[in-house]
Structures are given as structure tokens and as C-alpha cells.
Amino acid sequence: MTRSTPASPRPHRFTRQEYHRLAASHLLTDERVELLDGVIITMSPQNSPHVATIHRLLFTLLPVVGDEAYIRVQAPIVLDDWSEPEPDIVICQPDPTDYAQHHPRAD
Q1: Where are the chain's structural domains?
Q2: By CB atoms within 10 Å of each CB, which of 3, 66, 68, 95 scores lowest?
């Protein structure tokens, strides 16, 4: 007679779709979070030197990029079905709707 051992517990990896459903249900409203490889990560607070550096970088990049691309600051970008980080700066292709319908993808 053999005994079966119960499966060990494992964390649940969230898809982007599940992550958005949680947000729409107001379950993620207490803190800033992002989805990285299926894990919901609490983002660190933004201190003044960090924010100042982001703004300096933004104002340095704007004249270089012009209207050839968009510069998004601390906004989501879709990496795959498991990750939607909010990096400090993203340079992406222009979008006719200014990404009002979807986030840019890292293709």
C-alpha cells in the first residue's frame, strides 16, 4: 500500500487579466502595486531625490525625442501575460489614442 503525499502549497501567479479584475474590484487601492512575473509587488515610496531625477530625465529627453515617440512616466507597460510594471521612464511608439485604449507593449 502506497501513501500519497499531499501537494505542497505554492503561490498563485496572477495573470494580467486577474490583476486588472482585482484592481476593478477595488482590492488593490491601499497602496501602489505592480505586477511582475505574476507576483503583485508593493512599490516603494517616491522620495524627493528620486522624483527630481525622473523629472530632470524627462525634460532632458523631451527635446531629443520630439514627436517621434512618447515618453511615459511611471505608467504601465505590458511585457507579457504575467507582467505589467510601471517603470520610471518608458519611451514608446506614438499611439493615435495616446494609449487611452491600452497600455504600450514591449514588442
Answers
A1: 16-92
A2: 3
